[in-house]
Amino acid sequence: MLILGLVLVLAACDTAKEFTLKIDATEGGTVTPKPGTYKHPENTLVDLKVVADDGYEFTKWEGDKVAIVDAEKGEYKIKMDGNKSIKAVFVEITEEPGEPGEPEVKTLIDFEEGIEGWIIDDDMNQGDVTFSHDTEKADPEIDSTASLRVEYSLEKGQVVTCYFDNNYNLPHAIYYLRVFVPSDADFGYFRPYIQVIEKDEEGDDTYPLYPKDNVPYLSNINTWRTLEIDMTGIPEDAKIFKIGFQIGASEGKEEPEKGTFWVDDMTYVIP
């Protein structure tokens, strides 16, 4: 029996899958783990970090798909569900004198690996809303492989769902929200919003929503589109902490209004 047990253990070890991760990098920065070839058990999430040298910037990963964790900190992950080969690309900064470069587009949240940080905004929500990670529908224009699927139902008022930053420290920037609203989605209005904490004249906290000139977005046209909110002109001490969507009921409807929409990358630019 002891010999049989040892045989079974050895057989199990032999069947454990390992995959190879090959890491390479161009000149101009460092990568952790350093360039080389590594073996990892199947489905391991490997942490990656890039740091550009002075005069260089990291621009992209070449090869297999790499997920963003925090682009500003150079933190990424890769899932070992097969043999992978990646290359970190650094380029020399060669900005022409007197000609400022294009502002960098930074990712606030994508949904490649999950939907962490997305919540129901209980402060304003008045209907039923659920959301899930959807790997079947994504925005082909940005080479995405997953999105956030939101389903809602409301008889009156609005449903509200958003990304919540518990550090209350999102940048004053121009935000871009990629969203797909199908033609069968039923609502009175659909609009993005950003909520901030501001001080009033007495120094008390207020919680206004932007944009303040709320123009309803009503065109559910079966295509991915970008919604823009410019937050560069808000008070200097204002703190941004919620970015999401309000879906409002139509007036005079007797039946509940229902629908589904999808959200992909949320990005921003600091001019």
Count of β-strands: 20
How many separate domains?
A: 2
Structural class: mainly beta
Low-confidence residue ranges: 1-14
Q: State Rg.
A: 23 Å
Measured as a percent range, the helix fraction is under 10%
User: What global shape is seen?
Assistant: globular
CATH homologous superfamily identity of the largest domain: Galactose-binding domain-like
CATH topology title of the largest domain: Jelly Rolls
Strand content: over 45%
Provide a descriptive summary of the structure in words.
The chain has 271 residues and is mostly beta strands. The protein folds into 2 domains: 16-98, Ubiquitin-like (UB roll) (Roll); 118-269, Sandwich (Jelly Rolls). The protein has one helix spanning 2-15, and strands at 18-25, 29-32, 36-41, 45-52, 56-63, 67-70, 75-79, 84-92, 105-109, 118-120, 128-134, 147-154, 158-164, 174-180, 189-199, 205-206, 209-210, 224-230, 239-248, 257-269. Strands 9, 11, 12, 14, 18 and 20 form a 6-stranded antiparallel β-sheet that branches. The longest helix has 14 residues, at 2-15.
Question: Which features characterize this protein?
Answer:
271 residues, Ubiquitin-like (UB roll), Jelly Rolls, 6-stranded antiparallel beta sheet, single chain, 1 helix
In short:
This protein is mostly beta strands. It contains 1 helix and 20 strands.
